Amino acid sequence: MRRTTKIYGVPIDIVNLEGAFEYFKQLLDRAGFSFICTPNTEIVMSARDDDELKNVLKTSDMNIPDGIGLIIASKLHKLGLIERVTGIDLMGEIFEFCDYSRKSIYILGGKPGVAERAVENIKEKYLNIDIKGYRDGYFNEEDEDKIIDKINDISPDVLFVCLGSPKQEKWIYKHRRNLKVKVAMGVGGSVDIWAGTAKRAPRIFIILGLEWLYRLIKEPWRIKRMMNLPKFMLQVLRSKDITN
Questions:
Q1: What pLDDT score was predicted for residue 230?
Q2: By the 8 A CB rule, do 239 and 3 touch?
Q3: Which residues, in sequence order, are bridge partners of residue 12?
Q4: Is the dihedral of CA 232, 233, 239, 242 positive or negative?
Q5: Where do the domains of the chain lie, and which CATH numbers do they carry?
Q6: Rg of the chain's alpha carbons, rounded to an integer?
Q7: Taking the model in full, what pTM does it have?
Q8: What is the mean pLDDT of residues 182-211?
Q9: I want to staple 39 with a disulfide (CB 3.0 to 4.6 A). Which of 32, 43, 62, 133 is the partner?
Q10: What phi, psi does 134 have (nearest 5°)?
Q11: For residue 220, what is the DSSP state?
């Protein structure tokens, strides 16, 4: 049974990593197409001004709480979120599952060469994983039908879309009726981490919920985007009800 709360109108699943993974397996066994989103505070803030994005997040089959700000907001307003569940952690659980269950994956996104390097590293760690294919994220709208036809021809169980937010969420939603995959999941920059072209924060930053700070230190050009977190927290503190 799916349990969600809402933060500024965006449904967020009340799950820990184990629960999110178990629900993913249910989606995989379900008839038809399902998709998973990984909203953080930045995405939730964007959805307040982007009705199309908000509709996508309302339509998705699971929205994991991939942002420490969402957890803090939930605690302040007693919304029931358990813990932060990152897209890359859930991705790792899915890789492990696909490795022993012989389920297949496809990776779409990243700069030219990045998806290929990610696939090489994934295969090195998960020897039995069935990777049906990959493609970089540099394509035009007129290329999309050919890309979808190619994905459908090989029909992977899981499609990881790494186009960045909100492009990846909108892309999945746009093609949800044409994609012949069981589950699609938007995972943003996770492909860069698997490729080794970007590093994840040290564990102490992750434990303390300061992964955003590590990214800011490493990539100071992100400061404008990172300002969404303090803006979000300020609104959370000022609001009596953050569910609408």
A1: 84
A2: no
A3: 5
A4: positive
A5: 13-195 (3.40.50)
A6: 17
A7: 0.94
A8: 90
A9: 43
A10: -160, 160
A11: G
- Helix (H) or strand (E) segment spanning residue 22: helix 17-29
Judged on CB neighbours under 10 Å (0-12, 13-18, 19+), 244 is exposed
Q: How many residues does the chain have?
A: 244
Mean pLDDT of 78-100: 97
Instruction: Label residue 129 exposed, middle or buried (CB < 10 Å: 0-12, 13-18, 19+).
Output: buried
Q: Which tokens hold the place of 39?
A: 């909203």
Residue at token pair 């930045």: 42
pLDDT at 125 over 80: yes
Query: Cα–Cα distances in Å, from 42 out to 5, 10, 18, 52, 206?
Result: 17, 12, 24, 15, 18
Confidence of residue 226 (pLDDT cuts 50, 70, 90): low
SS3 readout for 163-205: CCCCHHHHHHHHCCCCCCCCEEEECCCHHHHHHCCCCCCCHHH
Structural tokens at position 43: 């995405």
